[in-house]
Amino acid sequence: MVAVAASVVILAFLEFGLVIGLTNLNERYDAAIGRRPTTRRPPPWHSSLSGEREKVIRREEGVTAVERIVAISCGSAVLALEIWFFFVGSFKDSPI
Question: The whole model's pTM is what?
Fold first, then answer.
């Protein structure tokens, strides 16, 4: 049980470090390409449900590098899982 708790704590610290690193990398990238700093957005529960502001932001700024990296990483992970599950996993050892 101690090993599981230690693993959870270590993974939480690693995730926190990666989030901080990606945030800093995104800020440097924005400064390098000349994108102006983003304004603070109100929490979602304080804004309109129609999402007009989000559309304006997307039109003006486009997709950020961090959003693109996350989308590509998630898509690659799902594709790798599907390839492994359907083609690499041995069907002869399957209990089904």
Answer: 0.48
d(CA 59, CA 34): 17
Q: Each residue of 49-92: pLDDT tens digit? A: 665 666 776 677 777 777 888 899 999 999 999 888 888 776 66
Q: Token pair 């049980």 is at which residue?
A: 1
The alpha carbon torsion through 41, 24, 69, 40 (nearest 10 deg) reads 0
Question: What gap in Å lies between CA 93 and CA 81, rounded to an integer?
Answer: 18
> In Å, what is the CA distance from 35 to each residue of 1, 9, 16, 81?
48, 36, 25, 36
Q: Which residue's structure tokens are 């690499």?
A: 88
